[in-house]
Q: What sequence folds into this?
């Protein structure tokens, strides 16, 4: 079962190269923290990366959140990723016809290791990812199976169909973005779980939060996305360390069960 195996054991079972690399790096760094850097400008992103880059396995970006993003940021981010040994996930949530997705995937993987994507357009959009011409670095997509936001429109059948597509396209799908353990018998996939903060609750625009330990133990998350709890902390480094610690000890409890 996925939840009882260690990340290192699971890296050998992954069919997608990015999933394999993420699972391996989680074991090496002893971290299951993905930091979401939704910050208004590039200098703020660099400042935060230099503070928390060593604690995170994955840095999740929304490049279009950053007001002064320019093409040179791509190279700079690649250098920061190498210096702090993290993987870059652009949370672009692709969701279009196959041909469009193929072009977007080819362009964005010039700097992002992974991309998020919606399954709304069906199997052929994943076939497009499979057929995209990319460099030899490990790449893959995280497909949105569930959302953390209040009142979102994803239905149970949509979630189920999305998990089936992930299995059908296991070579390109690194995992699912999900709030519940959907692929319990598939240890090669990584469950990316956002909507996590120090305390349960939410914000005033529909985001819902669970705690770090609930994300790992109750929700089955492998790689846990934490944004504002860290980026808006008065001491981001200290908060990142604390959350990293909470996430990792929850994972250790999970595999010891
Ligand atoms: N994100 C979610 N929920 C989702 C998906 C993505 O919060 O269901 I799919 C993204 C949005 C944001 C980050 O970039 O994860 C969470 O940020 P906060 O921890 O600041 O809420």
A:
């Amino acid at each position: 079962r996925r939840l009882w195996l260690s990340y290192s054991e699971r890296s050998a079972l992954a069919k997608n190269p990015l999933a394999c690399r993420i699972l391996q790096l989680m074991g090496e760094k002893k971290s299951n923290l993905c930091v979401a850097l939704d910050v208004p400008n590039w200098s703020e992103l660099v400042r935060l990366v230099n503070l928390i880059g060593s604690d995170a396995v994955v840095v999740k970006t929304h490049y279009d959140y950053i007001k002064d993003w320019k093409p040179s940021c791509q190279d700079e981010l690649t250098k920061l990723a190498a210096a702090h040994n993290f993987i870059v996930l652009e949370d672009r949530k692709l969701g279009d016809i196959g041909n469009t997705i193929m072009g977007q995937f080819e362009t964005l993987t010039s700097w992002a290791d992974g991309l998020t994507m919606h399954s709304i357009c069906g199997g052929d959009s994943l076939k497009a990812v499979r057929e995209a011409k990319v460099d030899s670095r490990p790449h893959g997509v995280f497909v949105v199976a569930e959302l953390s936001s209040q009142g979102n429109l994803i239905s149970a059948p949509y979630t189920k169909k999305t998990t089936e597509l992930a299995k059908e396209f296991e070579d390109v799908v690194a995992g699912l973005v999900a709030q519940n353990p959907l692929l319990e018998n598939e240890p090669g996939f990584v469950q990316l779980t956002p909507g996590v903060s120090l305390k349960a609750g939410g914000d005033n625009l529909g985001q819902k939060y669970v705690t770090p330990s609930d994300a790992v133990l109750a929700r089955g998350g492998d790689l846990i996305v934490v944004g504002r709890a860290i980026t808006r902390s008065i001491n981001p480094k200290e908060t990142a360390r604390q959350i990293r610690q909470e996430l990792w000890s929850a994972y250790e409890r999970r595999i010891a069960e």
Summary: The pocket of 5-iodo-2'-deoxyuridine-5'-monophosphate is lined by residues 36, 38, 62, 91, 144, 147-148, 177, 194-195, 207, 225-229 (CB under 6 Å). The radius of gyration is 17 Å.
